[in-house]
Design goal:
Jelly Rolls, six-stranded antiparallel beta sheet, alpha+beta, about 20% helix, Rossmann fold, 16 strands
């Protein structure tokens, strides 16, 4: 749909309603931007804003304009792509309007990507103003390929742009668009969700931080970043996104950091329960279980491998297992951008085969 006005205040959304329609992300709500933008990742839709917290969430749209501005709130870093090219990174702190000049006539393709993590916290997109004479073009179409990533800081891309373990801050040096999850999904031109939270484990968080909010508990909610702040987040509508492949890379924080670590038996039980839950939510989905070495001992790998072997012994043929190795030379001993690229390449073929992407 092409709008007559480039900017529509969210406060008058209901006055402009054409009737309620079902969104692909979250609750049933009428919202003017959703006529023109495609959302990637988990978003909570309100009459005032589009709200998210996960790393790598994205807004895609097309428009003919010489300038545009994003009305954003919340502390976050963003990457903007124009016509398939990365054009700039920018930071928002509080509520701000970020303006962008656009060169060239005709309809341009835009991608606004949240590259930082909100842990805790959230971001809100209130509106997109296309300036005088600007018009939205055709709404981008969703892909027929869908991948979900469930994980921790390795899946976030935590500190991957740092030149060493103490080079800068997490906020400055994290770029989710340079993480293996985003790179892998983007390479397949797949819709995706990066449901990952740094420091969280399946049943035990790193050094027992925020013990009430493990990944197992956060997973059911739309906005992970607000739960520990005591704010409310709606339950995620799992019918809105059915992945063909789910990459599960969890367990580092269960078995790393100051002891006591997670009980391996409890971890394996929780892991198997997660798989059962996901099978019910997404019939026919395929899984890639990923593990890596943890310090000071290597408890994660035998636990995940045992889950895989137990699943195969029960007759499940919907999953594969991969042990990966990373160069943890970036911030706080995390994989660098180069190592994240290698990880994406390592997992690419298996994910493509599981999803049936290789023959499409």
């Amino acid at each position: 749909m092409t709008t007559k006005h480039a900017h529509i205040p969210f406060a008058v959304a209901l006055l402009l309603a054409f009737g309620f329609f079902t969104l692909s992300f979250g609750a049933t709500m009428n919202h003017p931007l959703l006529e023109n933008v495609l959302l990637t990742g988990r978003w909570q839709v309100t009459s005032q804003a589009l709200v998210a917290s996960a790393p790598g969430v994205m807004v895609q749209f097309s428009a003919s304009t010489s300038e545009l501005s994003f009305d954003l709130e919340g502390e976050a870093r963003y990457r903007l792509d124009v016509d398939g090219k990365e054009t700039e990174h920018f930071t928002i702190d509080g509520r701000e309007t970020h303006k962008v000049k656009v060169a060239g006539d005709g309809v341009h393709q835009f991608r606004l990507i949240k590259i930082s993590e909100s842990n805790p916290g959230k971001i809100s997109l209130y509106g997109i103003d296309l300036g005088k004479g600007g018009k939205f073009g055709p709404k981008p179409k969703a892909s027929n390929r869908r991948i979900e990533f469930i994980g921790d800081s390795f899946s976030v891309g935590y500190g991957n742009m740092a030149g060493g373990p103490e080079d800068g801050t997490v906020f400055e040096k994290t770029d989710a668009s340079r993480g293996y999850a985003f790179l892998l999904a983007d390479g397949y031109k797949a819709d995706f969700q990066i449901n990952a939270v740094s420091g969280r484990g399946l049943i035990r968080n790193y050094d027992w931080i925020v013990p009430d909010w493990t990944l197992s508990k956060l997973y059911d909610y739309t906005i992970f970043g607000v739960m520990e702040l005591g704010e409310k987040s709606e339950l995620w509508d799992f019918e809105s996104f059915h992945p063909q492949v789910i990459v599960i890379f969890v367990g580092i924080n269960d078995f790393q950091g100051n002891p006591p670590h997670a009980d391996p038996t409890a971890f394996k039980t929780a892991y198997a329960a997660l798989l059962d839950k996901l099978r019910k939510l997404h019939p026919g989905v395929k899984f890639l279980l990923v593990s890596t070495k943890t310090w000071p001992d290597d408890s994660m790998t035998p636990a995940v491998q045992q889950v895989f072997e137990d699943q195969k012994a029960k007759g499940f043929k919907d999953l594969e297992y991969k042990l990966v190795f990373t160069e943890n030379t970036a911030l706080h001993g995390h994989p660098s951008a180069h190592s994240q690229e290698d990880l994406a390449q390592t997992l690419r073929f298996t994910v493509g085969r599981l999803g049936g992407f290789l023959s499409r």
